[in-house]
Design brief:
single chain, 264 residues
Length: 264
């Protein structure tokens, strides 16, 4: 529920704007806008399976659908966590390798929005959290293993097309290592953060808003501004995006986030 309070309000604000307000604006401004035929996929977090061509800022939400599908799967699998956590992670790993096998043999297509592509990231995060909270003394050994997987993954990805998908393992291992190092050095990181990174901490609270609203800002340029110069485009989009994310966080997202206290 706490995670839902972070994700759902802005997500459904964007979806509601697209389905209810945008058609009226498009008709008023005489701008052609294409919306997805299967709107229910956005309501059920299945938009990553919508392959039709429609407005860009909605298509950008595919990663949120992948994330929500993982959370739902995570909840359904919690019954096995207490006694079968590591076998479960092993099974998920085998599912990923099976998926990659069928991709490399051409039996199934390899699309970036398929949730199975991100199983290494999800499993790495699950293992990291489990070890950190249950056996923190083993965290360092786990990071060394992750380092070995990362090196092998990057090396294998250079051996040809058959091993290209090993890059997913390498990247997942890299982020696992980075987060694990932050956990190992949390006291030092906290000290540095308090002294030097108050600005980045403030901006970090708005990263979700920056992501979801970026699609609207980019779409605005593509349909209204038509700025071709890359530097000017970045400048204009940033001048719109950052204030939009700040206002959204302060006046729209924060009231929902305060409700998290009820689910501690």
């Amino acid at each position: 529920m706490r995670r839902a309070l972070r994700i759902y309000p802005v997500y459904f604000l964007i979806v509601g704007f697209a389905f209810l307000v945008l058609p009226i604006l498009a008709q008023t401004l005489n701008i052609r806008v294409t919306l997805p035929a299967s709107k229910w996929k956005y309501l059920l977090f299945l938009s990553n399976y919508d392959y039709t061509d429609h407005v860009f800022f909605l298509k950008l939400l595919w990663s949120i659908s992948v994330e929500e599908q993982f959370y739902i799967g995570f909840i359904l699998l919690t019954v096995f966590f207490k006694n079968f956590f590591f076998p479960l992670c092993t099974a998920l790993g085998l599912i990923y390798f099976g998926f990659i096998y069928f991709v490399t043999t051409g039996a199934i297509s390899h699309e970036y929005f398929n949730p199975l592509n991100y199983l290494p990231c999800f499993v790495g995060g699950m293992l990291l959290a489990k070890i950190n909270y249950s056996n923190p003394s083993h965290l360092r050994q786990f990071l060394w293993i992750s380092l070995g997987i990362m090196i092998c993954g990057f090396a294998a990805s250079g051996l040809g097309d058959y091993f290209m998908n090993a890059i997913n393992l390498a990247i997942a291992s890299l982020f696992t290592i980075l987060i694990g190092l932050l956990l190992l050095k949390r006291k030092q990181v906290e000290s540095v953060r308090l002294r030097l990174f108050r600005l980045t901490e403030y901006l970090g609270k708005m990263t979700y808003g920056l992501y979801v609203y970026s699609g609207i800002v980019i779409t605005l340029n593509l349909t209204v501004f038509h700025i071709k110069n890359s530097f000017l485009q970045l400048l204009v989009e940033s001048l719109i995006l950052f204030p939009l994310a700040i206002i959204s966080y302060k006046y729209f997202e924060l009231p929902f986030l305060r409700l998290k206290e009820k689910w501690r």
